[in-house]
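Table 4 source record.
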Amino acid sequence: MTCKNTDLIERLRNGIHSGARPCAVMFDFDGTLVLMRAGWMPVMLDMMMETLSSLGPDPAVLRDQAEDYVARLTGSDTLVQMEAFASHVRSLGGSPRSAADYKSEFLDRVNHARDARVAALRQGAIGADDLMVPGSRALLDSLRAAGIPLFLASGTAHEVVAEEAKLLDIERYFDGIYGSAPANFTKRELLAHLISNGTPAARILTFGDGRVEIEDTREIGGTAVGVATDEPDCLEVDAKKRVWLIRAGADFIIPNYLEADLLSVLGIV
């Protein structure tokens, strides 16, 4: 049974947090902190449907099937989602292109909107915080002030994550930034690295909007906050994301970081 702690925080498990302050915090990037690629999922699904719609009698069913594996694999390298897409095409009797080709096409499409946002930021038409989930910077400031090591891990390529983190002036908050390529350093591996270096698993806190980081954190016994952002405004919980993140094992669901009691609820202050 769920219960509301505040207007913006949904607690899904009582007692999951020991009350001890986190020793490390891992953040996902896209959709969790940064909105450079806001709206990426419809772009991906529209691209997939250009191939899938001719392979079955019911496009709505095919889109639902695609949305299921796209959501399930959100948080991993985009290549993994494209591998699932290629497998889907093959299962319907189609002849898929390579996953790498599909990934390249998707990035070309989604980067049109991303590049326009970066240009607007560089020109001063918008501010850095306009391209972040509301309350992100204040949360990062509070966590750093509390002396808690912070780590950024993403399924997006490392050079892109590093560039955007610098552009948004958030790279300074993190003790480590890890993208998916070229090293292919996964979130699961980062969690294992933290544990092997003495961080108690139960005192690792993760913020993420994808199932991958939530599942990985729950698997080690850490605390997972599902950021169910209703992009691009991120003022309400996205109902579909909420369901996906609950299924993944999120301990809390939030739409953004604006709730004043968030740090208290998470045992940080």
